[in-house]
Amino acid sequence: MTTTLSSRHPGVLATSPAVEVSLAEPRGRLSLRARGDLTPFARVLGFALPERIGQRAEEHDIRAIRLGPDEWTLNTPMAAVQRLLEAFAAIYPDHPHSLVDISGREVSLVIEGAQASDLLSIGCARDVEAIPAGEGRRTMFDGTTVVLWKDAADSYRLDIWNSFAPHVLDLLKTGCAELAAEARQA
Amino acid sequence: MSQFRVAGRGRINSGRRVRFTFDGKEYSGLEGDTIASALLANGVHLVGRSFKYHRPRGILSAGSEEPNAIVGTSRGAGRYEPNTRATVQEIWKGLTVTSQNKYPSLKFDIGAVNDAAYMLFSAGFYYKTFMWPKAFWHKVYEPFIRAAAGMGVSPSEPDPDTYASRYLHCDLLVVGSGPAGLAAARVGAEAGLRVVLVDENAEAGGTLLSEPQAQINGQQAWDWLAAELAGLKAKGVRIMTRTTAIGYYHQNMVGLCEKLTDHLDVLPKDMPRERLWRVRAKRVVLAQGALEKPLVFHGNDRPGVMLAGAAQTYLNRYGVKAGHRPVVLTSHDSAWYAAFDLEDAGAKVAAIADTRPAVRGDLIAEAGKRGIPVLLSHTATTTSGRLRISSITLAVVKDGKTGPETRYACDCLLMSGGWTPSLHLFSHTQGKLAWDENQNTFLPGFTQENCGIAGAGRGLWGIEAALADGLERGREAAAALGRSVDAAPVRVENDRTGTGVSHTELPTRRDAGKNKSFVDFQNDVTAKDLRLAVKEGMRSIEHVKRYTTNGMATDQGKLSNINGLNIAAEALGKEAPKVGLTTFRPPYTPTTFGTFCGYHRGSHFEVTRKTNIDSWAEENGAVFEPVGQWRRAWYFPKAGEDMDAAVLRECRATRAGVGIFDASTLGKIEVVGPDAAEFMNRMYTNPWTKLMPGRCRYGLLLGEDGHIRDDGVIGRMAQDRFHVTTTTGGAARVLNMMEDYLQTEWPDLQVWLTSTTEQWSTIALNGPDAAKLLAPLVEGVTLTEEAFPHMSCVECTVAGMPARLFRVSFTGEIGFEVNVPAYLGRALWDVLWEVGQPLGITAYGTETMHVLRAEKGYIIVGQDTDGTVTPGDAGLSWAVGTKKRDFVGMRGMARPDLVAPGRKQLVGLLTEDRSRLEEGAQIVFDPNQPIPMTMAGHVTSSYHSDAVGRPIALALVAGGHERMGETVYIPMPDRTIAAQITSTVFVDPENARLKI
């Protein structure tokens, strides 16, 4: 694994008969930290921030996931980042918070197909099938911290820091080959 | 069909013929055979030599508990496996099997002299024999013990197979697919639970595979089994065969080892050999059954001596007769059925000898019907036959006295000493065992885990009892998960229920002191050894075990532990539970290292983090070094250059023109919030309140103990926003430490921390031409001394890319660090590289970075500090805010030890002979003092310095700051080097070179 993923074009990276791993389009990512009254942030975003850890909310292609008691990640179109930074800065004096651009920090891998959960089970200790579709979790995959977005029963996204992504992808590729071998065997 | 394969018997008779070799000789078996069943079908009982006495040994069991039939298997280069159990490994076309512990051949073995000299090899013989003379230890005893120790031959080639692992979550995990396990799984499935059923055998069914005579709900056992398995699958039960539950860990985490390819003649592409499953089950039912106990008597280890239940399995499952003329020796009803089955299959049973004075009338009648002689109240006193049993000597026991002996010719002996519940996994849960007086064995008692034990595993006997118990345990599991389900009882006819008694060593009229009555077949431990251990003072079973090695072989005493305990207890005159049972530990059966390694080998062994600029380094021939999890470019050798030459060129070019360095791995933390400055004041030694936005400061981080933990340059990007950098290796640790304080000590502070290490690619430009190179590319700030002085920071664009630009220097030259979003790192590097060509831009690696910083006396935390160095020791007192009220480590710094004179302090060293010191070398003040000398410190950093024109070093020396100009000595193996203590700053102490 020599190349970093953020320099690669989005597209399919590994396949198996019943699952596919691909690199997602680059997205804007903002880490929001705040406490107390959250309504000012809802006004800026146009929707309320999710209340329970692991819950998500989405409006106009801006997705928010709650990762901690005072922590959310906003996943946005690249073009929206600057606008959001400015809009949040405008309310900062009255509603102190931290908003940090982490668009460059991570890449996202999309794992889709009937065996998506099986593929994740080679590196994720969580019961991913038990996570409701439309939610997400910060968890570990093969020793690496990832944010797992479950979009549907057979569709997941993994947010991974740049330098860990090749390691994660390497295992996912091995897993795809293994699932393919199993399919041939069956 | 061989003369031992019985037509119409077994489950594999329709299988393909499979050829394999054993010790070079070709044999044929049927698909589905184990090595053991195939060899037995060929009339082969002799499969190995024992470990200590090299006694000929045969096949004792038909399962994973086998202690004797341990062989080497191979499928070609790198795929040799020692210590494979012949009773488990299935045969496939081309399998190569070799026997172990033999020289020169299995039938004639020189090591068997150990057997004749057995008196020397009694319990504890290692401890006694190899004591004197002391001088013999290294040259004679140790090599001898090493040569004799260990079973089989370790593989010497890399393993070409791959191994896998997965996590699995379920409501109910059932271990063992015999009647009890099947019943539990059925109830679970009917209750709508996610059920996983695992079995170590190639086929599910357990006992049912060996008892085709049973009628279950009116169906023949195998028909019922097939329908039941199909029904379970249809209900979504995941049935995993060739899958051993190897360990039961906390909170119902059960480890499984699934063997995927060891039974195949052609290895499928990309298919791992084995897979480790980590199962998290809400409930577990252990239905592992019971293991048959051998009887302990003189000569009970000859090839041809087999457990009666095993013989029944070989006959009914594999269609193989263990012999034509067996004798059955038993203390349990179950072995009688083995005799009946074999007789019915055409063998001529020479006798059934039972140790009990009275046996159930129906058994006697069945024996009579078949014309089998029955001997009650009998014991066995010896056996004969060199490579295979040829006779057994039996005698009647009356009023505790052994009567006259009679010899019975036989070609195999089927024995049964009763059954021991398989308690291994239950024992892994730290479960308490309960002694059962009637059965003379331990049964499972209380466990903390959400776990039930079903069937023979808790001392029940018979298929109907096991099925009923399995249903009950399944119902229990379902109820615990809030489900209720009705399961109709299952009716079994032709069920073979039975009871038995337990023995220690069987009575004999011979000298028991000379008996070789084996308890642990694999480690060659006899009843006499156990009694000797007790006689020599061992009281606890744990001591007896270690002294005799009983139960310490690869089978973990599956057959020997309970016999060993009963014999030791008898010798001690105590009840067995007072002597105790040794602890079982995972794994249940021997498991390959590959299974535990899983995917983590070769390039995937551990995460290797790479920056976005790493690809350039690779393309340009960098040599890399690991720094924490990162791999970093160490130096960039040109053709013909070694490391020293490359580093010298890189240093010289940077000091003369401009060098470019990938500093992306530096840890970065964004500290944001109204209390950001207050937080920084509390964390770092330095004052931050007055630092203006747009300015940077060197920050020093201590632990509560006052010792240096980390450092880095910190820029104030805005009033409420700091861009903190940490050391490469310290990034995660520092963030955790900060979060820890924030969450536990200062939750009132309005400040938040975000890791931005990977948000940015960081490129350092250093050298007199650095500003010249960068200035034309920068928009938003002018790179002059006035507009952007040393220790400034700004958000701007560089080559059109959004950037955070820092003017900092870790080299003593004019220096910049350009941060751009990580994905732009390589693009920016390429631009700078191209624009820098006219200036002779030179890429440098971590080694040059180390040299250049050492020339300026800049420390590297973790190299020049070792966790006991204070700011004062490191000459960094200037970085400690003296007017601050508090910061982490402030009170620690005032501890008496930390202000005492004579502490090791960081100084520079110049050697008198201009040689380069070794990093880590110890320093003394007086080279002529007697050995052991008093160490005064050690060398922390040492390099050849082009700028100074000689090697330089940094060192921690006791009271070093007061010893400027003094000479210290560095004793090396070949000579002692003298060096002068100097300042740590070797180049440009006035910092004149920092100015644009």
Short description:
The complex is a heterodimer of chains A (186) and B (996). Chain A is an alpha+beta fold and 186 residues long. Chain A has four helices and eleven strands; from the N terminus they run E-E-E-H-E-E-E-H-E-E-H-E-E-E-H.
Which key terms come to mind for this protein?
heterodimer; A: 186 residues; alpha+beta; Gyrase A, domain 2; Alpha-Beta Plaits; 2 domains; six-stranded antiparallel β-sheet; five-stranded antiparallel β-sheet; 4 helices; 11 strands; B: 996 residues; seven-stranded mixed β-sheet; 25 helices
Helices and strands in order:
The complex is a heterodimer of chains A (186) and B (996).
Chain A: E1 11-16, E2 19-23, E3 28-33, H1 39-45, E4 56-59, E5 62-68, E6 71-76, H2 80-91, E7 98-101, E8 106-112, H3 116-120, E9 136-141, E10 144-152, E11 155-161, H4 165-185
Antiparallel strand pairs in A: 1-2, 2-8, 3-6, 3-7, 4-5, 5-6, 8-11, 9-10, 10-11
Helix pairs in contact in A: 1-2
Chain B: E1 17-22, E2 25-30, H1 35-41, E3 48-49, E4 56-57, E5 70-74, E6 80-85, E7 96-99, H2 113-116, H3 125-129, H4 136-148, E8 163-175, H5 179-190, E9 195-198, E10 215-216, E11 219-220, H6 221-234, E12 238-240, E13 243-249, E14 253-259, E15 274-286, E16 290-292, E17 305-307, H7 308-318, E18 326-330, H8 334-344, E19 351-354, H9 361-370, E20 374-375, E21 378-384, E22 391-398, E23 401-409, E24 412-416, E25 419-421, H10 424-428, E26 433-436, E27 441-444, E28 451-453, H11 463-480, E29 492-493, E30 518-520, E31 525-526, H12 527-535, H13 541-548, H14 561-572, H15 576-579, H16 593-597, H17 614-619, E32 623-627, E33 630-635, H18 643-656, E34 659-662, E35 667-672, H19 676-683, E36 696-702, E37 708-718, E38 721-726, H20 731-744, E39 752-755, E40 760-766, H21 770-774, E41 778-779, E42 792-798, E43 801-807, E44 815-821, H22 825-835, E45 842-843, H23 846-855, H24 890-893, H25 896-899, E46 904-911, E47 922-923, E48 937-945, E49 950-958, E50 967-971, E51 976-982
Parallel strand pairs in B: 1-7, 8-9, 8-15, 9-12, 15-28, 17-24, 18-19, 18-24, 19-20, 34-45
Antiparallel strand pairs in B: 1-2, 3-4, 5-6, 5-7, 10-11, 10-29, 13-14, 14-15, 16-25, 21-22, 22-23, 26-27, 30-31, 32-33, 34-40, 35-38, 35-39, 36-37, 37-38, 40-44, 41-42, 42-43, 43-44, 46-49, 46-51, 47-48, 48-49, 50-51
Helix pairs in contact in B: 5-6, 5-11, 7-8, 8-9, 12-13, 12-14, 18-23
